[in-house]
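Weekly puzzle thread! Below is a chain. First person to post its structure in token form gets bragging rights.
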Amino acid sequence: YFRFTPTDVKDTALLRLFATSVGEKPVLLYVLLPFQQPADNLDAWQEEWSAGSLKHRCDGITCVLEPDKGGKHFILNSGNACPGGCKATGRLSVIIPNLKRAGIVTVLTTSKNDLLNLSRSLDAAYQLRGDLRGIPFALSRVPRMISTPQENGKRARREKWLLNLEIAPQWF
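Winning reply:
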């Protein structure tokens, strides 16, 4: 199910509104996308985090964001090679109409499979009319069989719950 944490964690009114409008443990959210194009709604990078702090962000080859030598400021597009240790990180921006606010909610994932699913869904919807805004989407988690590594170095198919984004049926 989806967990919701407002930016202001003390905003108990918003937490109650979320729970009463979509349920305590929602498995399906109806959402809108705030931006016209897929890439503006889905931010996907490779990132390394440690102790709650970003160590670097890259495209898998070159750093696009990394701290300076003092660690107090970030350098954009330094051109430095990725130092490794990073993993897929994605942020999907959505608006949840049930919250009765126009604020953007970020759906966070660290699954490569989620990023692939979301990217394909966004691209397909964008091809329908060239603008993702105003289309109601159903965001859920669904079980899928995916290939995962085993301890012996081989791969095995296992069931995992992946993010699923599809155009809400009522829109058609």
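Puzzle host: Confirmed. Bonus trivia for everyone else. Residues 145 and 158 are 5 Å apart (CA to CA).
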